[in-house]
Q: What sequence folds into this?
């Protein structure tokens, strides 16, 4: 889910980047999809072997046009980018099947159309908020989730963009409480904030187990 800055370098610490079967993008802001460009170079030019098949790349509505504009300045990209990715746009009103996983969507409150994701398999449910201001649609999607991976960009509501684009840690905790999730995992925290304070704010609002998402850690659903 998502392929923003730094994803590809971290991915290679854990598995062969050619082994990924599918990528689902929540929205077309650069910090959520821009690593598709270095990913593409690796898939096409890796000296230890190219990928033998295309990776399924599921974009939100309108994402294909945005991606074409972004890759156009790279001389060889427009003709060859699609050789390593099988690109499609998902229907946010339906369900997406990815292997044994069922992915469902809910549009969030953000600066552009963005979609939270619910991933279910074998009776377990993971929900990823993507980017969102407080949203009843997000709470409905997250209801009963075993693990809620939720953005907590801010620590005070007045720090948000006009109209709302992100959540405070306390709002993430309140969303988790209203949705009745099992565990809350905070992500997308502005780097200059005291992360311990964000966890405390979310814990006070949630009343359940809260952790901070840490790069290269594993979390069992």
A:
């Amino acid at each position: 889910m998502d392929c923003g800055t730094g994803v590809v370098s971290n991915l290679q610490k854990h598995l062969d980047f050619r082994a990924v079967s599918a990528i689902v993008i929540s929205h077309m802001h650069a910090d959520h999809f821009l690593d598709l460009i270095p990913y593409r170079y690796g898939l096409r030019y890796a000296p230890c072997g190219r990928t033998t098949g295309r990776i399924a790349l599921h974009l939100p509505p309108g994402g294909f046009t945005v991606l074409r504009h972004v890759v156009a300045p790279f001389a060889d990209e427009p003709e060859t980018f699609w050789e390593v990715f099988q690109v499609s746009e998902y229907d946010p009103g339906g369900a997406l099947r990815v292997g044994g996983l069922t992915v469902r969507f809910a549009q969030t409150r953000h600066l552009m159309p963005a979609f939270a994701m619910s991933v279910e398999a074998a009776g377990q449910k993971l929900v990823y908020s993507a980017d969102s201001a407080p949203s009843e649609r997000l709470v409905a999607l997250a209801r009963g989730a075993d693990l809620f991976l939720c953005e907590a960009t801010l620590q005070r509501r007045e720090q948000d963009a006009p109209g709302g684009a992100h959540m405070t840690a306390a709002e993430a905790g309140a969303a988790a409480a209203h949705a009745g999730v099992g565990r809350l995992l905070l992500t997308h925290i502005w780097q200059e904030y005291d992360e311990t304070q964000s966890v405390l704010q979310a814990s006070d609002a949630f009343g359940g187990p809260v952790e901070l998402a840490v790069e290269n850690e594993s979390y069992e659903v």
About this structure: The first strand starts at residue 22 and ends at 24. Residues 2 and 30 are 10 Å apart (CA to CA). The longest helix spans residues 195-206.
